[in-house]
Amino acid sequence: MRNIGNSLSVINFEKFGETKGKVFTADNFAKDWDSIYVIPSELSDGVVNDKVFHRVDRKALVLDMKNPRMSYLMANQDNPVYVPAARFEKTVEGKYFPKGFLIFNLDFGLLLPESIFFMCRQGFWEKLLNNRDYSLYFEEYGPTTMEGCFLTEMKDFYNFSLKNEIPSLSQQRDRIADFRAEEKYLDDIVASKERKMLKKTSSDLIHMLGTPYIRINNALDLLSQDVDDEGKSRISYIRDNFGYIKRLIEMNGANFNDYPKDKINIIGFMERYIRGWENYGSKTFSIEFFCDGNFERENTILANDTALAIMMDCLLDNANRHGFLKTKSPDNKVKIHLDQTTLGNKHAVIIAVGNNGKTMPKDFSIDDYITSGKYGTETGRSGLGGSHVYKIVSSMDGTLDFISEAVSSEEKNEWWTTFMITVPLVS
Description:
41% of the residues lie in helices and 25% in strands. The protein is of the alpha+beta class. The strands form 4 sheets. Strands 12, 13, 14, 15, 16, 17 and 18 form a 7-stranded mixed beta sheet that branches. A 5-stranded mixed beta sheet has the order 1-11-6-7-3. The protein has a 4-stranded mixed beta sheet with strand order 4-2-8-5, with no helix packed on it. The chain is built from 11 helices and 18 strands. It is elongated.
């Protein structure tokens, strides 16, 4: 009979001494369809021993004993992973509670890892886990045979409680595709409602900030008339920080296509922006700004000043958070380079914004960068992302791409992640 128990088998683990290696933790369980498969290089190093861990040196299914969670571990002989072993610990009251994770061989001819994740989403594993009396397990089987005990009980529970056999592989794939399509449809509805709520909240805040913002700027203008250069610098500091806060609020739920556009001198804008960034932005890196020799100072683009500033905020803030990990160093650099190019049959400017911090993962594409919810590093969810950059660039009829490559300098080879925004020039 085709059931989950028949598709799994117990792995026999060998003893090992204390060592250091890649460690699987609860944080590595699948959070979505794209994180089901875990490769060793994604994991952190730790010191382990065979009293608490199993050494997994093959592809294996990892299940949580306490929560409906799974991952498929892509380990091998050259890249082993250490997984906390399933065991019991006894409380002072004499009760037993489970710790660690269950580890199995999975027969791909019977069951797909995506089907196990589907069962997690559908509540099967939750029903199974809630039926377990771990104290009875311990007394009858002992902690050293947890996987085998769990497997035996799981077969009986699946066959007699759920009355359902595992479908064929093609049926599994169809079921998963249907479920994912349904999930995406519902997620899109929720996201649409959230965007509308954010847009309304943002609009309300901007509306309420309107009068105070004008009054504060007027007051700062009056103050700047009677102070020396040092005083004017302090006033600019306040003005730039207040403007940055206003942009952060305005960005949430914004439709950048609705922003009115004007001709903007791109060199003048960059010079103003960099001066402002020095007042409100990160101090973890220095900025170099330069133009190609053929680029004319009078060149203009059709854009919105606020949207353009938000675009640069995203790029520089992400360099700070993810490239340099908020760590200041005299070697940290951001280079902003303007050059003339073409876009279709139009003259265009290419705005290259590069940093020599931590690079993007090798398999991280431009599609990943511009997709909400995708993150190139563990330091994601900053609030300023590639999706905003892409929307702003698109509103200017431009294109966006990035590269990560070694650049030779006189001293050494440096790694640079460079975002390239191409926008049509206007006369």
